[in-house]
Amino acid sequence: MTVQTPPRSRTRPSGAPADGGLAARRAMTRWAWRMLRREWRSQVLVTLLLLLTVAVAVCGGTTLYNVPRQADPKLGTAGAVYVLNGQNGRAADLAADVATLRRAFGTIDVIGHSGYGVAGLAKAVDYREQAPHGTFTGQLLAIHRGRYPAGPNEAAVTTGVAKLLGLRLGGTVALDGHSRVIVGIAEDPSDLTDDFVLIAPSADSPPQTASVFVRTTGSNRGGLGLATVGQVMGQGPNTDHLVITTLVLGGATVLLLLVAFVAAAGFAVLAHRRLRQLGMLAAIGATARHIRLMMAVTGLLVGGLAAGAGAALGLALWPAVAAWLEPAVGHRVDRLDIPWPLVAGVGLLAVLMATAAAWWPARAVSRLPVTLALSGRPPAPRPSHRPALVSVFFLAVGLGLLAAGEKKSPALIVAGTVAMALAMLFAGPPAIRLLAAAGGRAPVAVRLALRDLGRHQARSGAALAAISLAVGIAAAIVVVTTGIQGSPTGGNLGDHQLLVGIARPGDPPGLVPIRTDAQLRGLAAQVDELAALLPRPTVIPLDLAYDPAASPELGLQGNEPVRRALEVDRPRGGGEYEGIPAYVATPDLLRLVGADGVRIPPATDVVTARAGPLVIFDAGRDARQPPSTHVSGPRFTSLPDTLLTSGALTRRHLTPVRAGWLVESAQPLTDAQRADARRIAAAAGLTVEFRDGHPGVRTVRAGATAGGLLLALAVLAMTVGLIRGEAAADLRTLTATGASAGIRRTLTAATAGGLALLGGILGTAGAGLGLVAVYRHDLAVFGRIPPGYPLVLLVGIPLVAAAAGWLLAGKEPPALGRRLSD
């Protein structure tokens, strides 16, 4: 408060401080504690706001900390894995190589693999011989229910195999011709999508291949003289924890900025409520430093209570979040693996930010003249364009950092995200002024609510920043998870797709069984029956092409005649090539690979989504590079991504042959639908392939978005309660002059809806601009976002906020005839 320093008292001892010293500070501290106990109801909303954001920060930080796997599902905790091939009568050589590795490295773990085809499935089921509790593989095997198999007549199966094949605990499995009793439900804790049948290691039935886990590759890797080694996988530098630690730090920083914004909004309202009390303190001799100390102590107490309770709530919610996280990330999560330094840091920073948030409005209030403070009406803020300029500055810095970091530098991404959050903070006051100006022709109640927001920009601006940040987090999660779902790491197929093939299990896609037209019509009918199980299915026929002058061959899995389809090869180096099935281009497949609307030159032979040169071996095995057009997609490894044009078929005298169908559902496939599809395919002599990785990306997107929206609505509800609570005097005046309950409801609804609308626009725009900088080389990700999410962010939240404000308001305020005393 701007007051005159009282003259030195004659009774004050010589040398005593003019501001009362330690005794005065103790008195202000006690007074702050007493006022907090007396006015605890007015502090409830602020405390709940801080408690909620701290709980989200603790639970969210713990979630991010547990995202990386504890062990590499391919390497475990080993330094290298030697993959040995014992097929084609080389079982003795495989056993000798295992013995050689044991002598060379001492402690080793051996996992045997044998694949057995199943009717109706395109991929063979892995029979895995693995001893439990291995030195390097202990984290790659666990029993979910039951027990480990102990003899040659026992087995354990994973949940995926049990659901797909209709197996159960206590039943039998005999895919290899040897019937075994199922005594357990097994899993790979580091990869829950890994499906296999676990059997006990046995010397009587050597595996087809073996993976030997060793501590390190050693200096004598090249001199071991192994006869069956096919591949050596080495343990590269593990940067996952460094990246995740950086992301945790960035996420915690952003959430703590949310804490600061929320606290600033709450304490700005409390400072206004206490304005007359602070004026009385200044009138009886309290200095500006005393005023700031009293508010800072209030912030310290409220922040400490909220930090403790919020951390406890976040840790209490963590087990439930962990259960939801496991299917999303595809590995088991240790409930006791809690980053205690992060929890302590979040709590400490929350207390410090709450204290600073209480001190800052007290600094502004302490500069008011005493008479103005006693009137309870702070002066209207002076218009200033500096917040807009500062917002533009932070926006430019944030976009620059995000563009420089792209998707490779977590540190730059974190710094850019913080800068974008600050840009939202400083963009709040100008946005509120624009909203108030835009409401000039609105009804009286709406105009009053919007002008009240513009008149008190300090509190409404901080509240708007908190809402914008919560919406921005939800929008960012939608885009990022959509990008992951469409990336090459997103799995072999989409979670709503299945691939039906004619080839026998174990045969490569390029070998197509010879079928008559009548047989193909019967198979197509079976595919239609399979598709009828799905909601709003789409069936896309898949054709390969073959040379009719070539003689039929015999399939690898039997004596059935097959045709060898033309393949496009990609050089691997060293004279090796990767064969790629080349499907016949149709409008549906051209749209699938991203060539829809792309002008394809008439001379083009191949349309491909694969990078690098492609070759075709013509007659005489001469490699020729065909005229090709490169396009953008698809992003899943099992989808057709290389197509032969109709011109190529004519020029090369090729004939199309039906190889399968791609079936797409309007919704993700359920376990029951997968099992029914396999049953129908097996009965028809077909094979099906489903998605085998990242099953929970859609769940992460929906769940995290819902969490972000609930946080935004909670922040919005509490800040609206604070703002409208502060305006109780105005509401009493309106009621006394005849304002109806509809007017009171409209005031609250307009306040909530206006803040939610601005928050949705700022949060979505800020997150969108930042992600455009990150995904500037892959802008197609924005076209794959389900349209429902932007509608929820920009339309759903304002409507819900306005409706809630309308329903919960309207109660007649007490004491209409007089102003409540302080």
From TrEMBL:
GO terms for cellular component: plasma membrane. Residues 252-369 form the ABC3 transporter permease C-terminal domain. It is a multi-pass membrane protein. Keywords: Cell membrane, Membrane, Transmembrane, Transmembrane helix. It holds the Pfam family FtsX. It is found in: Cell membrane. The keyword Kinase does not apply. The chain crosses the membrane at residues 44-65, 247-272, 293-318, 338-360, 387-405, 411-432, 461-484, 702-723, 754-775, 787-809. It comes from the Bacteria. Residues 1-22 are annotated as: Disordered. This is ABC3 transporter permease C-terminal domain-containing protein. It comes from Pseudofrankia inefficax (strain DSM 45817 / CECT 9037 / DDB 130130 / EuI1c).
